[in-house]
Specification:
Length: 353
Amino acid sequence: MGSGDGFYSIEELSVDTKWLIDPKHLFVGPRIGEGAHAKVYEGKYKNQNVAIKIVHRGDTPEEIFKRETRFAREVAMLSRVQHKNLAKFIGACNDPVMVIVTELLLGGTLRKFLLGMRPVCLDTHIAVGFALDIARAIDCLHSHGIIHRDLKPENLILTADQKTIKLVDFGLAREESLTEMMTAETGTYRWMAPELYSTVTLKHGEKKHYNHKVDAYSFAIVFWELLHNKLPFEGMSNLQAAYAAAFKNVRPCLENLPEELGIILSSCWTEDPNARPNFSQIVQMLLQYISAILPPKSMIPSRVFASENALLAPESPGSSSLIAVCDNSGEIPRGEMEDEPKRFFFFCFKQCY
């Protein structure tokens, strides 16, 4: 519930005061992303390069209430979870506008990365490594009782060296409750799980029961896209794709894939949510596949099995190590160039707002 002046108090944000930042220290650079209710900018916070998400509060009392509630929920969840495959949360403020500050990831979205490669596909082992990054991120969220509900390539960002994927945007994420009815038709149609629909068209905002297994379905669609570098349900509109998946049980083609990967995909996107694996199982299935395609560990430099950007120690190699095995280009990643010139001027946050 919002305060009388329309802003959330520290208590209502349900976040430790250490995460509340002073907007006077924020400097806003060029826009790097935009959604329906928010824009993301490259910027600086206390001389640290950051991503600044500015959320539009809305125009009507109803919009303002919904967006303030969503903002408070997102900040509370971001402050609770930390993982090497989740964008690092730095802080938030809600005056003069609602702002969420995270680490800056310069590798671009997975969507942009794949589009730039088409029609060429990723090597299978690199695609599997990226999938492992994603699975670990969702596994972390689920272990904290959080459902992401909007897993898609636009919400997956690559690090500057384009060897690691991190999950961003908790705008639609929710804490899971066995008794809670949650809003249906939440997410992006092409990647949404079938149980988010009904055989009778749902009214906007109607509630229904579903659980964390919706993320497993979305993961499978993203994983298929990683393996094929094609838009899933190609030739269909977003609504047509959702209808085909929900009411005709249509799924992307599994031909020309290793049998083990086909089993992972089909189990994750099966119609019955209860039959889908949880993400700790998905991680193990991916690791088993990786262990079968990697050369013996003794033949790989020890650095391959260490993650330089890990916030939590990884149990085993992810995409970064897999790419290191096959990357013989010798090129210096953009993020490692010490003498890279400054790319833009920053403007004070207060000057803009």
